[in-house]
Design a protein that fits this description.
Chain lengths: 99, 643
Amino acid sequence: MLQALTLTMTLRESLAIPLTELEVGEAGTIDHISLPPAGQQFLMRVGFVPGVQVRFSRRAPLGDPSVYSVDGTEIALRAETASRIMVRRGWLSPLGDLA
Amino acid sequence: MAFAIGGLGVNCHSTESAVTTLGESSENPSREIRTVALIGPPNSGKSTLFNRLTRLRQKVGNYPGVTVEQRLGLLAGRGHEIRIIDLPGVYSLTPYSDDERVAVDVLTGKMDGLPRPDAVLLVLDVTHLSRQLVLAKPVIALGLPTFVLLNMADIFAKGGGSLDVLKLAEELGAPVAMVSATLGTGLDSVERFLRQDHDRRPDALLPVLPVLHDLPQCRKWASQVGRRIDYQQHLPSVWSRRLDDIFLHKLWGPLIFVIVVGAVFQTVFGLGQPMSTAFQDLLSKLGQQAAPLIPDGILRSLLLDGLWKGVSSVLVFLPQILLLFFFIGLLEDSGYLARAALIADRTMRSVGLNGKAFIPLLSAYACAVPAIMATRTIENKRDRIATILVAPFMTCSARLPIYTLLIAAFIPNRPVVGVLLGARACAMLSLYVLGFLAAIVTAKLLKSSVLKSAAAPFVLELPEYRWPTWQSIGLRLLDRAKVFLRQAGTYILAVSLLVWVLTHLPLHNGHAPQLEQSAIAYLGHGIAPLIRPLGFNWKIGVGLLTSVIAREVIVGTLGTIYGTAPATHSMTLQNALSQDLTFAGAIALLVFFAFAMQCTSTLAMVRRETNSWKWPALQFAYMTVVAYAAAFAVNQILSALLK
């Protein structure tokens, strides 16, 4: 049972890719944030909450930081931060979206 | 009130304990609202609303993190006085940054000198309701009468958004209204809410909000509420995205950034200079007109040569300072500033500064005092202190008077890059660059030594572009003009008086001495050996002494000294200086002012914000040493080259 659970977890986590791996214009659903709790809190406060949809809107002129669209707001993150936000490709979300 | 932050229901952790301590209103038995707090997420339009409600000027920007301290105002209109506290924008009530600590302290009545608010106006940007609603829970759970204002209703409606307001009020257990702070619509409901009596929220109402434990849960709740109230998101403006295609373009982005910055300086100097000259003519004409009205003698000398020359030599820079603030306001309100921060982030990172340091450092171009307050948005303590320490290197507007004066006196007015950039604008721009370089080198030094820390994540919100309103920019300019005139009317007036008195002492048989024999000359000659290697004469020395109070004071002091000296009495300060100072000395003086820490207000603010004398002392010593060394080098090298 426990093994199965671990397996599902691993499977689930393996499906998640860093936000930075999305193509420009592509959307995904936030799965988890692989940062210590303080870092997670920090990102969640500005809208990067697991279950929420996020779209890679554009790269900044010098390549980094990049702009992501979450909850209708455009937010710029450096690659070092964005790469810790794990997403699953596509629009499917357990939370649904407000729109 | 026995009230712990942990038990506040903050950040959705638990709501039950919020109920227990409420209901006592001994200070305000009539239950009429006397104090109300304005709270909301960053950039939700609280400050604009605050302005609308109080009709007071206050700094409002299209940029997250502009309000850094709670501000007080009185509700305009009839009826009893209602105090409005404008809190900094917060994402949650977890005291994560100093901003949020301020907000929580005020809301729980723990802020010294402020009564606990009787009611809360919660401002949410309706165009981003899904995210903003997360704050509604902990705020409403505080148990104070809360009015939820869905701001930006105009943009929302225009973009085709819609929601069921009554349903939302039911979900939240609090009244809800759609408003537009920019247009001023829907605000009569706020007044009605504030003027009516309120009972403290009965305990029975609280369970409307389910107890939730973390942010994802809160967010999920917000989503569910959104579905139940038929929230239809508005379509984000196509314009914002199109503009970003240009302003954040790989090639055009940085190019436009450089052009914008260059154009601002060129205009401030190119357009500001003739404006200042015209203003100067007007001021000296006023002096001449007034002269016959005052009996000839010591009184006329005191009023005209002493006070009027001193004060007016500083006043002439008002047009340029207002121009600079006009452009900063334009950039900030339009939303371009956030894009500039994005482009500048690479530079900020390379010196180890938090990307958020860009906001305070940019406002430091106007004045270091609000800039140091604005560092409160930086969560990391060490990053924050590093930013505070380097902020005064940024070229603040108090440096403009001496810069403009010396540049006009010593740099010829000829084009460098066609009509685009003149030699004078170039010189001015170099001084700005110099200050910026000093800031980043110092930041790098600090961050790699005493203030080393792990980098905090950089998060920058890009607001939609908006048309700046004349009202907002006008209020800001009025505010700056007031501050500047107050300075001129107090410090500069006092220093001018002191300098004039010292130029007239000691008396010989009831007559003022020659300038060279006066007390001021004695003082100036005293420090002359110290500053001679920098190429400064004793008069500049006196200016350096008086300008420890504030940078612009030097101009007033020099105005008084040269105005009293017989040889330069009838000249403008600019002409007097160009005869009395070498080119190398003038450039050295410019460099000295680029680096030196001459501002008691800034030092006081650093003391307050770092809560120790250590940092302001270190800052003052460091900046003075750097300024001295740089001015020394510049004077020596230039003198050798020009021989």
